[in-house]
Amino acid sequence: MLKELHIENIAVIEKADIEFNSGLNVLTGETGAGKSIIIDSIGAVLGERVSRELVRRGADKGRVTAVFELGKTEEQWLNENDIEPEDELILQRRINADGKSSCRVCGEPVSASQLRELASLLVDIHGQNDGRQLMDERRHIEYLDAFGDLKDDIDLYRAEYSKFVSLKKEMNRLSMDEIEKERLSDSLKYQIAELERAELKKGEKEELTARRDLLRNSEKLTEALDSAYEVLYGGDENALSMAQNAGYFATRAADVAPELQDAAEKINNAAFSLADAAELLRDFREGLDFSPQEYDNLESRISLINRLERKYGKDEDSLISFLDECRGRLDEIEYADERLAKLQKELSAQINACRKAGLALSGKRKAAGAELEQRIEKELRELNMPSVRFKVNFEPVQNENGFDSTGTDVVSFLMAANTGENLGKISKIASGGELSRIMLAMKNVFAENDTVSTMIFDEIDTGVSGIAAQRVGEKLYTVSGGKQVLCVTHLPQIAAMADSHYLISKEERSGRTYTDVKRLSREGRQRELARLHGGDNVTTLTIMSAEEQLKSADKFKKIVAGDRA
């Protein structure tokens, strides 16, 4: 449940602190007062995409903080993401004036995608565009699958469909006409022959380059080596003989003074090290003997490798792998007919496997569809659509195989709003108010299967009025018995059902617009309901009418409370 919301420098809101409660929380106010900005702020702190336009003009950053109750599901998410759980779940989003943003959960930095993942466990937001999504028949199968909780069945089907797609891709790759086959075969043979002649070896270029650079500087190197060797081992008074003499005398001294034994050993060890070094210098010097032909051969070999790397756009190691790929591809072409025949048998078997899995999934969908029809019609009757008929329509996929990535079904929702009318597409039949109620019915039905504790409705009342609006308000209150509900509305019938009613108002001060959020008392609710009924013309009569509406709502709540008990 969302407990607290702190908004700072977001659009026209300089600063606002809102404490939400369980049950039905309603937000009302004049158009443009900032009601939707509060919903946008909640969306921002839940990881939705944000822009710099959201930051209040003149501020260097905006900030939204939301405090939720911590449940077991959320605590598990925190543990999986190495975040230390606290008594409450605190989400923070900062948006800079340049458009960059940062997210934190319980003080720990997280990505926006992580925040969205956590948000899916906390809140379900019904925005104004959800009605348009309901008219998109491509989404209907998603709604049905979500209602039927068919994820495991869908995963099984998709595994079979993925195998089908892989086989098709391989067959398409092998299928080519004879001219294309001959052209590609000739090209591969040329590449294979060229690379085989090169006889490339892994790490060869690096070794050749090192040897070439060594020979290129051989004169200077030889001079340095000769000088070093002469000092170490040449002549009578060289470093090695002097170290050996020093070791001899140090050893004699140690015979008389044992405490010098360590010094004698170090000198003798140094003499041995000098002897080893002299041998290394001598051997290396002898290995420098080379002919001009060796240098030319090195240059030619390095040039060949460089040319092949430029030609094929690959480094030395990749060229070796590419040669193996070319050989494999040539084998595929030469034995393509045999491979295609084998793949065709595998494809036929996989088509049958997809159809079988698709039909199994279809059976589950049709069972879920029949239940969804009953549930939606029941919900809509409670929303003042007593004659509505709602149908989940199934048509077979129209292609040569009878299935696609979603299965064997094309699913669409049909409805007839009034008695005697034919079923038709929701996009053709439903009015704006009917769309809102259908969406509310679906949200209510789907909410029973998820663990989300908070539902937010941004202007669910679009196109709704009169008795229908009263039924929507009653339905929202009923839903709030099991989940916290936040609702932005313009309708007094819905506002009257609130457990907590917030007024969003704005005023101008010093040439700037400021938005204020205030929880209303009973008297404040009377005046706000009167304003929703009659605009600025708030009279004693409209106040009395508003109080009557609140009493009626209280009576309905007592009935619901009795049913729940």
Summarize the structure.
This protein is 58% helix and 17% strand. The chain is an alpha/beta fold and 565 residues long. The strands form three sheets. The chain has a six-stranded antiparallel sheet with strand order 2-1-4-5-6-7, with helices on one face. Strands 8-12-13-3-14-15 form a six-stranded mixed sheet.
What do you see in this structure?
The chain is α/β, with parallel strands linked by helices and 565 residues long. 58% of the residues lie in helices and 17% in strands. It has 20 helices and 15 strands. The chain has helices at residues 35-45, 72-80, 112-122, 130-135, 140-148, 151-174, 178-198, 204-216, 218-233, 239-256, 261-287, 292-312, 316-334, 336-382, 426-429, 432-447, 466-479, 492-495, 522-534, 540-564, and strands spanning 2-10, 13-19, 24-29, 61-69, 88-96, 101-105, 108-110, 123-126, 389-396, 409-416, 424-425, 454-458, 484-488, 500-509, 512-519. The chain has a 6-stranded antiparallel beta sheet, covered by helices on one side. A 6-stranded mixed beta sheet has the order 8-12-13-3-14-15. Strand 1 and strand 2 (13-19) form a beta hairpin. Helix 8 packs antiparallel against helix 12, helix 10 runs antiparallel to helix 11 (261-287) and helix 19 (522-534) packs across helix 20 (540-564). The longest helix has 47 residues, at 336-382. The radius of gyration is 40 Å and the shape is elongated. The model has no long low-confidence stretch (mean pLDDT 86).
